[in-house]
């Protein structure tokens, strides 16, 4: 999973409403639902809907063969009851192993406890019921895919999705929904980027979108990718003890390949790692200021141009840029900055009769 921030442009005169009571830092498990969202806007919901990975209106069904379900159903249709028993028994034992490792929360003990033998048996009952329906000798009622109760049992025991299909060859397919234009699975206004525009505005709407083009000066330490600073401790920063703590570059050979070396970890095991060419110095990280974009965001959405992004976001906070060479990364960032400036300039030129820009910006916390 990953979170990333993007900008959506919505009309100044649209239906948006700022929630003055929203505060991510004051959010708890008890008040998170009652607190609501930092901004409400049906226009924004409609604008972002086509890029949701899970919105069925914009998804195509991708049928995926379910091998186990197909095997047991074809065996049943072909009256190969030996195979039916083999698949069902394997499925039951697999489920049993899963439930025996599962737990539930005990309200009295105020902690998670393992399922009891009785509770495991209760969980296995649907599998045993389906097994009996498949067995010609155990019941007068035999499995019928057109029987809704039987089909529900089959779904619970074998299917990965609620929607699935059977073709003329009795092959069974799970139905997965896929949106090739999907870039997130849910989003939040506020979230990790609550008060994103705090430098220029007191809420999550930026009314003067020209400010998106500004820059600011920060310590170089704050510009490093998060994974480069995982080993840093607060006391190291306070005591200015950062030399040889953050890698600046790794050594490469004449072919541009990383040079590897052997290290021994804390458990005495040897491992191959990249040879460090240069570390950042404490002075570079804590004293040297660098100019960065005031608002660094990965994507922007407009009604006219739709979703546009600097690079594709992946899991664990990584994007396409993390695998690029320095030159490619620099070119990607420069191209993106130019595109953002072009979009902002075009929107700034769209004004009402009073000369006021018709558009405002919303910071969106996307999850993928």
Tell me what the structure shows:
This protein folds into 3 domains: 1-54 and 181-214 and 294-368, no CATH class; 62-178, no CATH class; 218-292, no CATH class. It contains 9 helices and 19 strands. Strands 1, 9, 10, 17, 18 and 19 form a 6-stranded mixed β-sheet that branches. The protein has a 3-stranded antiparallel β-sheet with strand order 4-8-7. Strands 2-3 form a two-stranded antiparallel ribbon. With 368 residues, the chain is an alpha+beta fold. A hairpin with a 5-residue loop joins strand 13 and strand 14 (270-274). The chain has helices at residues 32-35, 42-48, 67-77, 81-100, 117-134, 148-158, 234-238, 282-286, 326-348; strands at residues 3-11, 17-18, 39-40, 60-65, 103-106, 111-114, 164-166, 172-178, 186-189, 205-206, 215-219, 247-250, 260-264, 270-274, 276-279, 289-293, 299-302, 306-309, 359-367.
Q: Gap between N and C termini, in Å?
A: 5 Å
The chain-level structural class is alpha+beta
Helix amount, in percent? Answer: 25-40%
Largest sheet: 6 strands, mixed
**Low-pLDDT segments, ≥5 res:** none
Count the DSSP helices: 9
Beta-strand content estimate: 15-25%
Number of domains: 3
Oligomer: single chain
Instruction: Tell the overall outline.
Output: extended
Mean pLDDT across the residues is 91
CA-atom Rg in angstroms: 28 Å
β-strand number: 19
H and E string: EEHEHEHHEEHHEEEEEHEEEEHEEEHE
